[in-house]
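Sequence and structure are kept together here, with a separate record for every protein. A complete record is shown below as an example:
=====
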Amino acid sequence: MTEVVVPDELAGERVDRVVALLTGWSRADVQTLLESGDIVVGGARVPKSRRVESGDVIEVRGEPAVDALPEAEAVDVVVAHEDADVIVVAKPVGLVVHPGAGNEHGTLVSGLLARYPEIVDVGDRTRPGIVHRLDRETSGLLVVARSARAYDSLVEQLAGRSVERVYDALVWGVPDARRGVVDAPIGRSEARRTRMAVRAEGRAARTAYDVEQTWSTPVVARLSCRLETGRTHQIRVHMEAIGHPIVGDATYRGVRDSIPLRRPFLHATRLAFDHPATGERISFDDRLPPDLTGVLAALGPPD
């Protein structure tokens, strides 16, 4: 059983939306669990339309099951680069990378299988070709292995920290240091199992950042964040830990009325690695999507 404590930012929302947002499951699957009594609030069954309050304890006693291996489906995939060994994808916000509980269909993997059926035997059969991932609400670049040699090479490069992954982020407040490194281990939160947290017994995690721009009304900063490791929710957790949560991040205290963004302002803007076949260093850049450029436009000129 998992317990979820409703954060202040989600007070007043429907229980089905809150659970879907905090777990990544579909609303339909959450509603099924509510109807079967596998999700309760304050120890009692509730309808899906029930509005929750800050501090309410939601008990999640079950989860949707993944019944089969991913199948090819007609899912739009924006490809920034492809060759015999690698595929570089520009993932839009809202697209889940690979199947999981509550997300069996309509994933990036399904779209890739339709376009590149040969990846079915590359790496893990439950997530073929996938060597790293982006959260559903994070947009931007990721590389997919198209061949076995590419898979082995990319996994090794990621383990050796030679893959460059740079993210564009907007955070609340302005860090004291214009350039810094957050070096803090990350593990599953004991208080809220759907979250990650800085924990002494967690896995090593390092995020380097540079302050690129700042604004005074509201007080926010645009950062360039570079992953030196790749833990779940790493940048989001590290930014919250230093007191500067990502704007729009409901899970990690980043939702505020002054910037009405309903997803984290986090975009994987740059990716570089050694090509598995040639050894040549190749790099890719991706512009911010319209929802995030709209936020910057509304803020006006930086300080």
